Amino acid sequence: MIEVYTDGAASGDPGLSGAGIYIKNGNEQMEFLYHLGYLSNHEAEFHAVIKALQICKQQFPNEIISLRSDSKLVVDTIEKEFTKNPTFKPLLAEIQKGIQSFPYCFIKWIPEKQNKNADRLSRKAIHIQD
Question: Taking a C-beta distance cutoff of 8 angstroms, is the pair 83, 73 a contact?
């Protein structure tokens, strides 16, 4: 099982944003960070999950994926497969499509203190110049 920690951050809400992804595969650890441009914090959280699924599709096809996020909004939206928010609807659809690439993929809410690596990466990604 691949453990995938995701986090999104924005400097301002909305503001410059970034996504951080920290992946554990046994003893192997991988780190990814992406500058996302001008987004809200919630949008950045969704984009972090999308980026994580894209990475996993390339790096770990046919593996069981355990996504972990400290965003209750993102976790609840993905688990319920529903949002009323028009901004989040296309992001949810992209996540649902990405999840279908794996035999089993689930998302779990974790406290912020368990997501420090992804948080560090997302904050660093805000400052990357395109």
Answer: no
Tally of domains in the chain: 1
CA distances from 60 to 7, 35, 53, 63 (A): 20, 23, 10, 6
> In which domain, by residue range, is 89 found?
2-126
**How much is the pLDDT for 130?**
56
Q: Structure pTM? A: 0.96
Q: Are the C-beta atoms of 14 and 39 separated by less than 8 Å? A: yes
pLDDT in tens, 81-119: 999 999 999 999 999 999 999 999 999 999 999 999 999
What's the CATH code of the domain at 99? 3.30.420.10
Q: Are 15 and 26 in contact (CB under 8 A)?
A: no
